[in-house]
Write a structure and sequence with these properties.
Layout: H1 6-24, E1 36-40, E2 45-52, E3 59-65, E4 72-77, H2 78-83, E5 93-94, H3 104-114
Length: 119
């Protein structure tokens, strides 16, 4: 399974460009709704992604939770995510049923309080 669909890639890139343009004009940023949720089925690890760098399509931004009780916002490599394997040698996959109900900052605040992404 592809980690990202073409539609998701385009939305993630648009978010990145919009944030970069706002920062360049010294305007307040936007709390984007996550576009995609990735999961590692056998580990509890989750990622909520909001941006993809159009100049380097391997780099995404989002909320990362490795299932160890300390979720954090940050950049990561799609290639590294695609190469990860946990128990039963299962790969990271896209949660096809995910629909964001709030912005990434709200997910992040909630995850920090309970030690995991609840989405």
């Amino acid at each position: 399974m592809m980690l990202l669909t073409e539609d998701q890639k385009e939305k993630l890139k648009a978010n990145h460009v919009e944030r970069r343009d706002l920062e360049a004009s010294h305007q307040e940023g936007i709390d984007f709704f996550p576009v995609v949720k990735l999961i590692a089925p056998s580990s509890g690890a989750k990622w909520l992604l909001t941006e993809l760098d159009p100049e380097n399509e391997d780099i995404v931004f989002g909320l990362c939770d490795l299932g160890e009780g300390s979720p954090e916002l940050g950049y990561l490599s799609l290639a590294e995510l695609a190469s990860l394997r946990w128990a039963l040698d299962l790969p990271v996959e896209r949660d096809r049923s995910f629909e964001a109900s709030q912005g990434l900052l709200a997910y992040s605040e909630s995850a920090l309080k309970c030690g995991r992404i609840a989405a």
